[in-house]
Amino acid sequence: MTDTPAQRCGLIAIVGKPNVGKSTLLNALVGQKVSITSRKAQTTRHRITGIRTVGASQFVFVDTPGFQTRHGTALNRSLNKTVQGAVGDVDLVLFVVEAGKFTPGDAKVLALLKPGIPVVLVANKLDELNRRADAAPWLQETAGKHEFAEIVPMSAKNRKDIERLFPIFEKYLPEQPWWYGEDELTDRSEKFLAGETVREKLFRLTGDELPYTSTVVVDKFDEEPSPKHKRLVRIAATIIVERDSHKAMVIGDKGERLKRIGTEARTELEKLMDCKVFLELWVKVRSGWADDEARVRSFGYE
Known about the structure:
It is a single chain. The strands form two sheets. Strands 2-3-1-4-5-6 form a six-stranded mixed β-sheet, sandwiched between helices. Strands 7-8-9 form a three-stranded mixed β-sheet. The protein is an alpha/beta fold. The chain has two domains: 8-170, 3-Layer(aba) Sandwich (Rossmann fold); 190-298, K homology (KH) domain (GMP Synthetase, Chain A, domain 3, 2-Layer Sandwich). 34% of the residues lie in helices and 23% in strands. The protein is globular and about 55 Å long. InterPro entries: G_ERA_dom, GTP-bd, GTPase_Era-like, KH_dom-like_a/b, KH_dom_type_2, KH_sf_prok-type, P-loop_NTPase, Small_GTP-bd.
């Protein structure tokens, strides 16, 4: 009789300054989209847990917001507290930096990491370096900044690079029973994913014009019986912006942009949730909400 390997399961935090590719990495590790990705800095605001089971090991990933070093608003204080909470109770930390660069922002995130928890340096976006040979001296220099458990140059867009990561991470997971079913991908509710999906389309389709203090609140998420579809979900969501000019920008000429945000979000949600979705979107102005602790909490931030 062959011994089946013992189950392993553990928490892995993904940390780094904004825009180094943490959400793209999380989605690639899980094999499906659970965290929103956008070129706009600072689009991840909640601890999103992605789950991937490979062989006898279950990897539970915690995505953190990019640590904010620039502004001191209530929203950013809440985000930074989320990061510090996330890195304190995990089995392994993936510290993501952009290959070939190490900025003061990276150094600030590195300074937050608690001693005693193994850290893997993930040098992401290797594909964007002109010559891979340039990476060697940079890697050597960066390796001296912390006692890293492992150093992995890679590209989150390369599937082989992603598959190579699991055996590296596995040895840091404690031997214990899995926390989730083998095919579960996230512990976040569909309602949460609906809000995130709308927010991603919002940022993707408004480019850099819209400040990141815009957010999305899901007002209604109801499943209804339907003779035509095996599942039918009605969602109503409000896009919250800071100024009237932002509202006009989101709505667009004759409502075109808002319509497109809705269509793209609905199409993606139908794929993610495998059901028919009716989505209604509204835009409201709530100036100064990101500076207001109570309002930050009421919009669902920790």
